[in-house]
Amino acid sequence: MALVALIGRGAELLQLRGLISRSGARIVSLSGTGGVGKSALLAELLATEARQANVWTVDLSESPPASRLLDEVARALGAPAEAARSGAERTIPRTLASLMGGGARVLAVDHADSCTVDASLLELLRMCPELTLIVASTLPLNAPAERIALRSLAVPAVGAPLAEILRSPAVRLFTDRAGEADPQFTLDGATAASVAEICRQLGGLPLAIELAAARARLLPPRELVRRLAEDSSSGVALDILSPRATAGVVGIRAALTANRAILTTSQDALLLALSRFRGPFPLEAAARVSGRRLLETLDDIDVLVELRLVEPMHEEPGELIFRMLPMVRAFGREVSADADAVEARRLTYLRELVHEAAEAASSASDSPATDHARVLRSDVADALRSEAAADIDSAAEFATDSAAVIGDFTEGSTVGVILDRIIASGAVDRLHRRQQAAVWLWAANCLARSPEGSAQRELVDERLRRGIELVDDASWPFLGLQARLIAVSSIGTTADPTIAARAAEEGVQIARFVGAQAWLARFEVWGGIIAYSRGGIDDAAALAISGLQRGKRIGDAHAIAGATGLLRTLPAGSHDPDVPVPSLEQALDLARVAHDLTVETFLLAVLSWEAILSGRPAEAARWCLARLALSTRRGWTILMSLSLLHAALIAAILGDEPFAARIFGVVQADQDRLDRSMTPVTEQFFRGILDRLRAGLGEETFLRLLAEGSTVSMVDAANQATAWLSAKVASTAPQPAEAAPPITPREREVLALLAAGLRNKEIGSRLSVSAKTVMHHSVAIYRKLGVRGRTEATAFAIRHGLVDAP
């Protein structure tokens, strides 16, 4: 029997009891992946039903593959051997009916995955008119039955406030079991975020949550988070989720093995291939790395999604992005027998993909390769480490390509380390001049964006200078454009607006020379930003308008979004009011579609600042929360500091003076860079708030709180500010009215065909669309209905009348 308890299972237990007591409910199919708690639910049900009815329980976990369900039930219940050997459809039912006797009866069959169903099952029910048969299996029973599909427990969203975390059934289960393992364990503001992250990493799977919670006495939640996230062949996550010496308790390996057992050969091969990815992956990458056709991959990945072995991600509109939970990934790597061939395909694919994406970045053009490489950034960083370990000289091109594509993300720190090694080892001197320039430039960019960048401004300047000196603008104009962009965007670290302004002007000249309109529009916007930082409002407005209009003509979302942010920041009356400027929200959408994280964070700051100045602190909290989450994911400490600064301003305005003072204490350590990032208006407002806090709290209390904040790490401060901002946003957010799920007519058609059991290719043929388009619709349906896979979508649709019951 599994360890899983019934926290969060009240609705399913009531439903199951209702079906047993209701006349006519003859067969109940209880389905769900291994570890979801089917056995525990049956045990709880039968513990009460046994007092009122004649209950028989059968565990078929040891049954051979493809055996008949009733044959195995007969053997388990001790039917005569000759009856169990008989193949006649009426012999086994008659034997079982005689064996169980009369009266109200419940026959509960657990672990029925390996068994098949035939007409003898219906014959048994005919002979026993008051019998209710409950069959628990991973997939729904292939027979007419009432269906209950168990899903993993709901987990809190990233950044959820404490109240929401406490309500989560997954968190409640962890807390209950952790309390049993360690009576001193408490869930509070210090542990809640880590516990919520544990539950997310485990996908809300009850068995995994219980096994992780059993380690609470030895490992604090934060350490559990770290170890569960480890992705290596050592199987750390699986070892944590192994059972202690407790009779009848299975580990996560056993549950995943049971899920794997019902896969076809091709589905199993795909699962093991996908486990080579370190992070999220697009569908096209899954096909390439597994060495399969796209359509074949699509059909098989649909089954893996249904079994919760793979999860669709909803953050990337227009793309089919998937992920594996760390424990599933580690399991796949542990049991894979073809790892070397798959790994070779993965590394080759990643190198080709990143090179294609870097070529697109150099011409300031959009490419699916760019989006895919960014989704695969964890794998890119991993592949770069492997190549550098084998041959540091050959890694140079891969490293500079990677820097051009993923340098803005947290994984850019890995790229920076490799570039530093190329420089320190002398390998840079053995490269072609163009490649030497690229190494120096991208090494400067990675260092400027790192936490150490502010303290190493001189080294950033030196690398920029060496790189730009090596660039031949006439021969390599696009590298020259990238060099100027790096120089311009590093102004927050170098604190040299003169160099940045010159780089922007040179970027405009090169872009005009080669006719690169997208580059020209972007450098005009950057020139406007630098002009504004130096007090040149008129020049800033003129350049921003030119960049905006040019960006609109060529459809460059980066330029449009950046110019909008600048124009909306300039003082009223600084530009022609007849020039149509998008709203900040529209610009933010453009930046997100273009995956321009730099412009996105800029716009979030503008939105937050505008709300602060307009006296709308709750709205400011919403934008500040989004920016803080984004900067934390990227690992950009300067952006985290700026976001924390806004959080402190919002707290001061809302009257939470102690919290504001502590956060100001955190960001004081980065005050030098903060000062360089502020406009005169921002700095004046900031100083005024500090004076208000000092006066309101008193000098002694104010300095004490500042000192307390100075001892808090940036990460801990970000977690505290995230919880504080989330609470303010949640307390003012309007409660949404109950409404029907907003699925489109086409999605309703797809949902009906999913419910009818058709696969992607069959649905595509019916609707005259591709199988990939069908999967797009399916993922959208899952997101909108809040379900995981076609079984849950079908059950939801039937319950809410979206499709007709079969």
Overview of the structural elements:
The protein is mainly alpha-helical and 806 residues long. Among the domains are: 10-149, P-loop containing nucleotide triphosphate hydrolases (Rossmann fold), CATH 3.40.50.300; 254-337, Arc Repressor Mutant, subunit A, CATH 1.10.10; 432-515; 516-595, no CATH class; 613-732, no CATH class; 745-799, Winged helix-like DNA-binding domain superfamily/Winged helix DNA-binding domain (Arc Repressor Mutant, subunit A, Orthogonal Bundle). 64% of the residues lie in helices and 5% in strands. It is built from 43 helices and ten strands. A hairpin with a 7-residue loop joins strand 9 (311-313) and strand 10. Helix 20 runs antiparallel to helix 21.
Q: Which labels suit this protein?
A:
806 residues; Arc Repressor Mutant, subunit A; globular; Rossmann fold; mainly alpha; three-stranded antiparallel sheet; 5% strand
Amount of beta strand: under 5%
Mean pLDDT: 83
Shape: globular
Q: Give the N-to-C terminal Cα separation.
A: 33 Å
Largest sheet: spatial strand order: 2-4-6-1-7
Oligomerization status of the protein chains = single chain
Could you give me the name of the CATH homologous superfamily of the domain at 10-149?
Answer: P-loop containing nucleotide triphosphate hydrolases
Considering DSSP H and I runs of 4 or more, what fraction of the residues is helical?
55-70%
The gist of it:
The chain has 806 residues and is mainly α. 64% of the residues lie in helices and 5% in strands.
